[in-house]
Amino acid sequence: xxxxxxxxxxxxxxxxxSVAAGLAAAVATTLCGTGxxxxxxxxxxxxxxxPAELSAYGFFADMAxxxxxxxxxxxxxxxxxxxxxxxxxxxxxxPQGRQASYDADEVFDFPVGTALVKTFxxxxxxxxxxxxxxxxxxxxxxxxEDGWHALAYVWNDEQTEATLKIAGARIDISTxxxxxxxxxxxxxxxxxxxxxxxxxxxxxxxxxxxKARNINGSFPYADGPANQLDRWTALGILAGAPxxxxxxxxxDFLDAAAPVDARARAWLDVNCAHxxxxxxxxxxxxxxxxxxxxxxxxYGVNKRPVAAGRGSxxxxxxxxxxxPDGSILLYRVDSVEPGIMMPELGRHLHDPxxxxxxxxxxxxxx
Amino acid sequence: MTSFLSRVALAMLLGVSVASLATAAEIxxxxxxxxxxxxxxxxxxxxPGDTVRIGAGRFDLTDGLSLDVDDVVVKGAGPxxxxxxxxxxxxxxxxxxxxxxxxxxxxFAIEDTKGDGVKSKGSDQITFRNLRVxxxxxxxxxxxxxxxxxxxxxxxxxxxVLVKGAADAGIYVGQSENxxxxxxxxxxxxxxxxxxxxxxxxxxxxxxxxxxxxxLVFDLPNLPVQGGHDIRVFDNDVTDNDxxxxxxxxxxxxxxPKGMGIMVMANRNVHVFGNRLSGNGTTHVLIAAYPNEYxxxxxxxxxxxxxxxxxxxxxxxxxxxxxVGKTISDISxxxxxxxxxxxxxTIPEYFSWTSAENRVYVDEAEGTTFINLKMISxxxxxxxxxxxxxxxxxxGSLPEPAPVKLPQEGxx
Lengths: 366, 412
Hints:
The complex is a heterodimer. Chain A is of the alpha+beta class. Chain A has helices at 19-32, 42-46, 192-198, 212-215, 228-235, 260-271, 328-334, 352-363; strands spanning 3-4, 60-62, 67-68, 72-75, 87-93, 100-101, 115-123, 133-144, 147-155, 162-164, 169-176, 182-189, 200-201, 204-205, 218-221, 224-227, 238-239. Chain A has two domains: 3-246, no CATH class; 260-363, no CATH class. Chain B folds into two domains: 25-134, no CATH class; 177-402.
């Protein structure tokens, strides 16, 4: 595996601009529509041979600042996937004149030529997570004529360009946690097959995030906060969506004002259900963690494991109601050991906030 | 013209397309500097028809490998010469994951994975041949669960593999269809060979020894595929399964007592014949219902149609182990008979009869010992209950399923 020995803490070149400021500037460009038309290269998106460099797509007016080009729309998810605490910046590009079709439950049906762009960055100090960002990779999901393709571009130290890595990479990250304690770990950029390890629906690559329930929330656009679903409709990139008030929504799992059950199910939906669903890579487990699953035994309540191995942690049930410490699900979400931890791809650290929420959720179950 | 035609004919015989023959390439990956990355990349960039040839030597991998391209052969220099070691693995749930069709994996070893050894998910025509999957530290609950692990796949051939040290099952076929497991060796695993929630399986000429249990045929509830049926287990050597159970608690196999030969739990139309069993301290053959409570109205917890015949039984049953061993021997005494049926049946059947195709039949040589524990009788009628050791009352037979034929071997 390629190793990038530089560290966040040791780097001289820093992005001092905050993410929010960068996004605001980006959105101003997008919405005013004054940027050069056709800045994004549809040819690059549709090519069988993907460009070796991220800049060739033209997604960004300013790559280092993550300021998107004309027609590239930033978005966020109500509850995001946990990726070792990475700060993520998401963008969608739908070719001019085309639209995604709305779906109440599944990912929107995006037209050919769509690009979903996700940039991963780490802060030099998580006491101020939006500052001093080091961008490590940008992942693309490109919708070509023959289906979706997943690609990862790894950024250089100078933060000027990112290059395609099909075999993945390990990148050493050194930073300071929210309590001020320095820590480091080897962050994994997924290889092409690992992308499909999560982005697999019935054997084909598929996006995961842009579902109505997870887009249906507010975004700080340049002209003020607005609902993303409504905005996508207004921008003409989404067709068939009801008014946001009539669409499903999951809460932010950190929103203490929302019911614990909804927060926990939202977290499981985003972090687990891409595999743990009837059409996903973990279908054989019979554990289905989608937001819409209503059968308790299917989302783990009093369900015995089938192939957990040492992942069982000596516990008998996926979820033992009222007994977090007797629940395999919590054991595996809390673990950072390969062979035990869940999700098994995409993280090396655990998310204490998620562990605390799931503990509270299971403890309250009868 | 002639050569083109013969090439087409050959291609059709081999079941591959002419196009893939025309472009087939060999991608060689030798040990040494950057080998892990080169191997990862070779498996990702292989084209249908290609062979990825892994050279002799040791490959130290820190991440899982995966193959998602159809019609690829991955071939090493032999199970003792090409060693993929995952001792330093930091990610992924298995050593090698295959998610494509018509794939052959042969002649290499996978050692010390943190999770499962080699897995296929959703593959059609997957062959595991002459592989070694081993946890080199011996039995340990921290070892991975499954060694050779096809799941939700169909047309599976497992042959001449050796699996040692799996904390669940050495060779585990789950939720799959059309399966052959043959001429393989499973030792020092919790379960040697396990066929679970699967249809149409032939398990023959294998050696299962020094596991906790030799060969298990199970059907479990709450899974997308259940109702396993048409299983033939024959001509295997199931001997000296004498390793203490080291499965982590919570896993189904954790209930298997040390010294279990062949165990059939739930399932339909299972034929156990011509096997050689000896040195299994709990019992040689156990036929049992699923023992736990469950919430699943589609699940049949009782074995339906089991036919045990023509096996040979050596010494055994002298050291019944664990809770299951105690339950049996409390009723049967020691040594436990060669064949044990828990006798559990559904409530309506208890009060009426079990139809011919759903019964348990035993037809063995003179001197073979047997017990029907009549467990449900014990539950319902504690005052009028006794076990049945009269083997002659279970004589009969069931029509045998046709042999499994696989397309990768020219079968239908």
